[in-house]
Every structure is written in C-alpha cells, then in structure tokens.
C-alpha cells in the first residue's frame, strides 16, 4: 500500500475551501491552515459596513464547512514562511511560534490585499474593506455621522453632517440587465480612485457617465 500524501492548504477563503472540498478523498491527508477559524464571505462585507447584516451573518466556521471531511484537519494559525527545499511551512499560533509542518503538495490560497496604486494618501478617505474589522469600522463611522447629524441643532447643517460617500470597493454585484453586459458595475469610489480626483462632484459625474 502506497504512503498517503500530505496536502497543506494555506487559506480558508473561496480558493482554499474549494480545494479542500475537491480533495475530500481517501488518497491524501489535507491540512488547511488559516489565521481565522472562520470563512469570510467577502462579497457581503458591504452589507455589514452599511448595517444591513451583522458580522456573524457573513462568517462561517471553517470546520463547519469542511470539518466533517474525514481526511481534513483545520488549524488556526498564521503561516509565517515556507521552506521549499525541506517542503514545510512554518505556523505561528497563540502559544507557539514557527512550528514546521511538512507537506508533499502545497496550495497557497492566501487571497489579496487592497491597493491604492501608489497613492496611500487615499487610505484616509477610502479605507479598505477586506475584513470584518474593516466593515465594522466603516459601519461605526457612518452611524456616528448620522448620530451627529441627528443631534445638530441647526437643521440647515444636517446635509453637511450626514455621510455622503458610498462605502464600496472596485466592483459591486448588481442584477444583470438585459443587453447591458456583465453583472458588475463600477461604483463611484472606484472611479474616483481611477480618476485620481478627490473632488466628489467629479467622481459622481464619472460614475453617472459610466453607469449610463
Ligand atoms: C468587499 C468585497 C466584495 C466582493 N464582491 C465580489 C462579488 O460580488 N463577486 C465576486 O466574484 N467576487 C467578489 N469579491 C472578491 C472575492 O471575495 C475574492 O475574489 C475571494 O474572496 C478571493 O478568494 P481567495 O480564497 O483567493 O482569498 P480570501 O477569500 O481572501 O481568503 C484568503 C484566506 O487566507 C487567509 N490567510 C492569508 N494569509 C494567511 C497566512 N499568512 N496564514 C494563514 N492564513 C492566511 C485569510 O485569513 C483568508 O481566510 C469581493 C471582495 C470584496 C473584498
């Protein structure tokens, strides 16, 4: 009988989970490592940022999704390095640092981070939206602005106080419209970054033109 091969997957996002599910066979042993013990459904981050959903509604325990696969082990930890020659990754967790974990096959599914294309000064005005912490921070900022507007005694200043920018990323899902191309449309902030303009009116004008 041949020795069972070890597959290590780094990342429990869409990519990592999909790989683990497809490897649900008795031929290999799978170890999935993620720095979070939950899978985050990123496309719904906007809804958390705008208080439509709560954080718990878009995070599912990774073990609840693939934990029943008999050949799969889920480890909570941060992968800090890979030694290709020795075929091992190094994992740090709350009480251990850089523990080596051997593999025969390695799947890197660590996702991406946002980029300001060399203009990190945009971050203050267009914060990233990749994690639950990002979404909650944006949500709190929006709610705080509405609270301040509510408490403003001069009604003519309400419009100045209320938030006017949309919390959004490069693309948001919208219902596909017949004959109007793919089911995604660029949104104001994305066009604002592309145009490299901070002028809100220009951003909205660009968006209006692009949206037809
Ligand atoms: C706000 C938003 C809206 C989106 N909307 C859509 C949409 O409508 N339609 C669409 O198709 N796509 C959408 N996307 C894109 C989609 O969510 C991503 O393409 C997808 O999540 C990428 O999956 P992934 O597995 O590659 O990475 P991720 O889902 O980012 O998963 C990477 C995982 O790796 C883990 N990880 C990273 N580094 C390490 C490390 N060193 N050690 C341990 N673990 C690590 C992370 O914790 C994470 O769980 C959206 C993304 C965002 C942010």
Please tell me about this protein's structure.
It is a single chain. It is built from seven helices and eleven strands. The chain starts with a strand and ends with a helix. A hairpin with a 6-residue loop joins strand 7 and strand 8 (99-102). Residues 169-200 and 202-207 have low confidence and may be disordered. The strands form four sheets. A four-stranded parallel sheet has the order 5-2-1-9. A three-stranded antiparallel sheet has the order 6-7-8, with no helix packed on it. The chain folds into two domains: 5-108, 3-Layer(bba) Sandwich (FAD/NAD(P)-binding domain); 120-211, no CATH class. With 212 residues, the protein is an alpha/beta fold. The protein binds flavin-adenine dinucleotide (FAD). Flavin-adenine dinucleotide (FAD) is lined by residues 10-16, 33-36, 42-43, 45-46, 78-79, 109-111, 129-130, 169, 173.
Total beta-strand segments: 11
CATH class of the largest domain: Alpha Beta
Biggest pleated sheet: 4 strands, parallel
Class inferred from helices and paired strands: alpha/beta
Beta-strand content: 15-25%
- Uncertain runs: 169-200, 202-207
Number of helices: 7
What is the fold named in CATH at topology level of the largest domain? Answer: FAD/NAD(P)-binding domain
Determine the fraction of residues in helical runs and give it as a percent range. Answer: 25-40%
Globally, the shape reads elongated
């Amino acid at each position: 009988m041949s020795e069972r091969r070890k597959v290590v997957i780094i990342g429990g996002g869409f990519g990592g989970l999909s790989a683990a599910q497809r490897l649900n066979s008795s031929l290999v042993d799978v170890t999935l490592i993620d720095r979070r013990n939950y899978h985050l459904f990123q496309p719904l981050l906007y809804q958390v940022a705008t208080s439509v959903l709560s954080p718990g509604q878009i995070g599912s325990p990774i073990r609840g999704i693939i934990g029943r696969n008999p050949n799969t082990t889920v480890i909570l930890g941060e992968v800090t390095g890979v030694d290709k020659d020795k075929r091992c990754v190094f994992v740090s967790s709350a009480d251990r640092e850089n523990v080596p974990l051997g593999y025969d096959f390695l799947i890197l599914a660590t996702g991406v981070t946002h980029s300001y294309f060399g203009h990190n000064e945009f971050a203050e005005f267009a914060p990233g939206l990749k994690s639950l912490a990002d979404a909650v921070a944006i949500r709190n900022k929006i709610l705080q602005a509405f609270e301040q507007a509510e408490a403003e005694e001069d009604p003519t200043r309400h419009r100045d106080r209320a938030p006017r920018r949309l919390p959004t990323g490069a693309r948001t899902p919208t219902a596909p419209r017949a004959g109007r191309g793919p089911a995604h449309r660029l949104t104001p902030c994305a066009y604002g970054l592309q145009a490299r303009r901070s002028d809100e009116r220009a951003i909205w004008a660009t968006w209006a033109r692009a949206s037809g």
